[in-house]
Write a structure and sequence with these properties.
2 copies of one chain form a homodimer. In chain A, helix 3 runs antiparallel to helix 4. Chain A is globular, with a radius of gyration of 23 Å. The model of chain A has no long low-confidence stretch (mean pLDDT about 95). Chain A is mainly α and about 500 residues long. In chain A, strands 1-3-2 form a 3-stranded mixed beta sheet, sandwiched between helices. At the A-B interface, helix 1 and helix 2 of A face helix 1 and helix 2 of B.
Amino acid sequence: MTAYQTLETRFRDYGTLGDISAMMYWDRATMMPDGAAPGRNDQAALITRLRRQILLSSETADLLDQAEQETDGLTVFQLANLHQMRREFLNESILPDDLVEKSERDASVGELAWRENRANNDFAAQQPHLETVLENVRQVASIRAEAFGTSPYDALIDLYEPGLTQAEIDPVFDRLASELPGLASRIIDAQAAAGYPGDIPGPFSVKAQKRIGEEFMSALGFSFDRGRLDESVHPFTGGIPDDVRLTTRYTDGRFDEAMMGILHETGHALYEQNLPAAWRGQPVGQSGGMALHESQSLLVEMQLCRGQAFVEWSGPKLRAALGGNADDPLWSVDAQHRRLLKVSRGLIRVDADEVTYPLHVILRYRLEKALVSGDLAVGDLPGAWNDGMAELVGVQPETDTDGCLQDIHWMAGAIGYFPTYSLGALAAAQFYQAALVQIPALDDQVRQGQFRSLQVWLAENIHSRGRSESTQQILTQVTGAALGADAFMAHLKQRYLGDVN
Amino acid sequence: MTAYQTLETRFRDYGTLGDISAMMYWDRATMMPDGAAPGRNDQAALITRLRRQILLSSETADLLDQAEQETDGLTVFQLANLHQMRREFLNESILPDDLVEKSERDASVGELAWRENRANNDFAAQQPHLETVLENVRQVASIRAEAFGTSPYDALIDLYEPGLTQAEIDPVFDRLASELPGLASRIIDAQAAAGYPGDIPGPFSVKAQKRIGEEFMSALGFSFDRGRLDESVHPFTGGIPDDVRLTTRYTDGRFDEAMMGILHETGHALYEQNLPAAWRGQPVGQSGGMALHESQSLLVEMQLCRGQAFVEWSGPKLRAALGGNADDPLWSVDAQHRRLLKVSRGLIRVDADEVTYPLHVILRYRLEKALVSGDLAVGDLPGAWNDGMAELVGVQPETDTDGCLQDIHWMAGAIGYFPTYSLGALAAAQFYQAALVQIPALDDQVRQGQFRSLQVWLAENIHSRGRSESTQQILTQVTGAALGADAFMAHLKQRYLGDVN
């Protein structure tokens, strides 16, 4: 066996242990009773330890060195796999064990404290926790920056979207920051003039919501032979490519949130289910960066499912499934569509529409860069947050609960993560624009509930590449352009203002 | 660290990996989509390999030798733990790898073939598979027998109920074989004379069945903070002590099967939930042999829940939960109770009542002993089966599907397992008889739905002992007698013929 082949064997075990972790994480979020938490923590810690033993052994290090000297005859995918192995090895090996453990411990404490302090609107109580967590993150950033020859913040972005840099993001986000507030105003004014169709009074059977949700998932190409739909407090897509576990959250008072949650996660799930089967268990067989992953969920949710063509197909089905009257104007396709496209200036990111959402992200992006560089002290965060909200979104929170305490990310040490949400939205617009060009009948197909061409197009152009290429490479090859705001802005103007240039 | 302490550390990882396996097994039976099976097989195989690496390493062998030389100062539980470690080590180490692998592979093939051949009533097609599986089992038995100085069949029993022997079982089963057929006749005649109350026409809401099942589980002491109730094709109790996962199977045409399934599994579950918390993850902290485990499920299902006192409490609740009319004689406590105690001569073991069940088991016990010793050739099994059924149960199957092909056990290589079912029934009768003596108010408490004393009694006397003592030791200490048929026979005569001596 060559060094590379031996590495594949070792990484297969490493990957299988990761698969086990993923299933246990899903179980924890959906099934596990509370009293099982301590035991589950032990199980998770053991898997992590065993994975690190495989990855960080001296044999793995030697094999990597050797395999990198013997690349003749390796295929493109094998080379990419070797590259990903090295990346995984570096990511795990350059940080000292005590920093890794301290980071995890502090993040866990900080997250727990945050749940209470957010509820109590007590930033002062959270501040020392956030300072500790931030200090750990800065140490991680500094070690990674030195090892990889990047800036500290770029070294953090790289954890979530490998290779992407602040230099690429800044101009794109600056453009959005300059154009979106004005665009949002125009849209809000236009929607006010047109009037809101009103909400549909519930209750809506949860069983019926689930059934029609599953029907839409199947139509979109989700294979229930290799996945499930369940419930959890925070919807997510978990599991592994051949066993994708989606979750959503139902209330009987409204259905749109659960339904859009299902469609969003279905976008993530299609990506996972269509990863290259031949590379299961190897690093290169996994999904790419988080911006690319989010582009797949937003392509389905925002580009496809909130589009006119989709609602023409789904609207009557939804109405029938939930027992609505065909003559009820609240259930008309037009009313359903307008409800899905409502734009407003809100305080809460997760409730934001697709027009204002990037402004919430840009605020966080700017603030976290300043926190990492030291330009912003944690104590000054609430003020900077409120000023930024006023400037970007045009509203200001009255409490930190609705302000800088609203998100879990920083509290748990996830810095460099926020930009991927909106970069995903931009990529989704680029991909969908390309799909509409390359599949000329797409809109007609969607209107008839035919999603096969789109599914194949996504699988061939994006999903089946696994981690063999970067998000930027895939974007450029598929859409002819690197990540940018053109397609996204054009999409918004067309959808919300009927502006087709 | 002493050698013993180091062993505890190693066995903690070994145990935690076993816990992970248990959760994945539950997921497979209840949640996993079919397409995930190949990946799940890889995950299970990796866990098995990692466990064997820990257990069979030369370090473990050396540590065991050393710890066994340094037992001064070890507590009783630590000594028992060391004993169980050695037992686990021997069980896994004395068989050659290729025999273990061949056995697993052949059993898996044999089981798959059996599903088809049973459906097709094709014993001839199954015969070569069973011969192969039996040959593997005989090799295992012979290796174990030589290592442990026992007979080959005793070496197989030991896999399921450690330490128990044919010499202990034979006289007990011989007595049952001689007395039960006549007793069954008397009961069947008496029930025929009294008349059958008739079945309650359904349908019964599955949701309501589940809700009242959970209510009964809670009343019996099941902690939903450390467990769940779900559905699977074959009901079982899985998971781990702090996360016990029960399953049952519902139909809306009848409720008694699902309900008795829940109560049976609750007996298993209480045992698991009340294992000694201080010994979680160590071999001695696990449940004992399968006869002891079955005694806990049968104590709850057969001794407690089919008893007059329990039905007086549960009957009206069940009726109310399932929408029955209080005036309907079909729903009277008497009718409900008589329905639960119906005795008949049937062909199928899993459908048998508690009176005839042991006869089904004794048939299998006698046949499997003869198969292992070579006194019975596989080709002669159908004839021997049918003769045995006529002699013991008094009915003969018309097909092998309803005869020697009905059970999965032998087909998958489980020989030595069957006796534990009825030994469990005997032990359950002994334990419950002792509980009635030691808790004089028990029947009155049960009539009022108070199960706390019984639960504490079971936990203190049985569950909290883990694997520190054998089934025979526990039985003798708690009931004053070794495993025997006295209590069981007295129980049957009293319950079914009103014979109180």
